[in-house]
Design a protein that fits this description.
Number of strands: 15
Helix content: 10-25%
Structural class: alpha/beta
Number of helices: 9
Mean pLDDT: 89
Low-confidence stretches: 183-193
Largest sheet: 8 strands, mixed
Order of helices and strands: EHEHHEEHEHEEEEHHHEEEEEEH
Radius of gyration: 22 Å
Length: 354
């Protein structure tokens, strides 16, 4: 019987990646803490990866073969990769998990001896935690405070039970946890697996300026909606508990129909983070079934959003928009494309005004 162990390095202030050009400039990989991190993989049965980590690792580690340490351990290990876009055959001794990924991972846990190790706390890690597949989280906390960067699970909440705390001569501390809840109701046997939309762009404006893209009605009207759509209405009440009502209108060749959305704000930390729940509504802001608005099946009636704005060198901003709760790959892909086009318009807005 195998365990799934997620390992991740982070800063004291909880960042797992800093802005370019040195996203991991704070990482301490020496002495006792380096040995502890290596031991996680030394004794493992294999690695469990999402697409992003697989592509990053598979492009680098084979080039470091013969290092007598990390590459020589990781390269021959078996890997299992969960992705809806990759196709077999995979390189780097990897096998693609397709179809019912949750059940396949459960079968791997049952069949294998030794840990299945996953690295990082991004979208795939949250998927594993959300489906109660993770046995332990190993957080290697590095002695650094960075202030801006990516946070675990794209900002989603997860409750943890502390199992162990250790410190090393390098100043790194290891916190070993067991996940005890994601802050969401447990999924029933009838419930479908959910996935996320994550879109990232860089804007030619500092966070305090880019923040106004969400709070200034005139700016919202310039970027909300896919390319070719217009936004004739943006009624903004930007505060916790407040709501924004936005309307997107399709071009005439698509019938000129209108779709209304209501954003209800649950958290605001100006100018770096906001959280809101988006619902489809009528023109008065009353919630309606997504199907009544012509929305494909698989788009939830309520879509939680997390928006982060991180400062970059040169007075620029990295903006990340994450949407949660999709139950259908096609619906998620359509929403992904729509959000990407919205942020493309936002990116062009600031490129044109700087």
């Amino acid at each position: 019987m195998s365990k799934i162990v997620i390992t991740c390095a982070m800063t004291v202030d909880g960042l797992i990646e800093s802005p370019a050009p040195r996203p991991y400039g704070w990482l301490v990989l020496e002495g006792q803490s380096e040995q502890a991190q290596f031991d996680v993989f030394r004794d493992a049965a294999g690695m469990l990866l999402g697409r992003k980590n697989y592509e990053g690792f598979a492009s680098y580690w084979p080039t470091a073969a013969g290092d007598g340490r990390w590459a020589d351990r990781l390269n021959p290990m078996r890997k299992w990769v969960a992705s809806t876009t990759l196709r077999e055959p995979l390189e780097w001794n990897a096998t693609l998990l397709e179809g019912d990924v949750v059940e396949q991972i459960r079968q791997l846990k049952s069949d294998l001896d030794g840990d299945l190790v996953s690295s990082g706390l991004g979208r795939f890690a949250h998927f594993l935690v959300e489906h109660d597949l993770v046995d332990e989280l190993l957080l290697f906390v590095n002695p650094s405070i960075q202030g801006a960067g990516d946070r675990p699970f794209h900002g989603a909440s997860v409750d943890l039970e502390l199992l162990e705390a250790r410190s090393f001569d390098s100043g790194v501390a290891l916190l070993r946890y067991r996940p005890s809840g994601t802050g969401k109701p447990p999924m029933t046997s009838e419930a479908s697996a959910t996935s996320e939309v994550v879109v990232v762009r860089e804007l030619d404006a500092p966070p305090e300026v880019a923040w106004r893209a969400w709070t200034d009605p005139e700016q919202v009207r310039q970027w909300w909606g896919p390319i070719g759509f217009v936004c004739p209405r943006a009624d903004v009440d930007f505060r916790v508990g407040g709501t924004t009502l936005v309307t997107m209108q399709a071009p005439a060749e698509y019938g000129g129909f209108s779709v209304h959305n209501r954003w209800t704000y649950t958290a605001v930390a100006e100018p770096n983070r906001m959280e809101f729940v988006s619902t489809f509504s009528d023109a008065d802001g009353n919630p309606i079934d997504p199907a009544a608005a012509g929305i494909p099946a698989g788009v939830p009636a309520e879509v939680p959003h997390v928006v982060t704005l991180e400062p970059l060198p040169g007075g620029r901003t990295k903006i990340t928009v994450t949407e949660f709760g999709y139950t259908d790959d096609e619906a998620r892909e359509q929403s992904q494309q729509g959000q990407e086009q919205c942020l493309d318009k936002m990116q062009a807005l600031y490129a044109a005004t700087t």
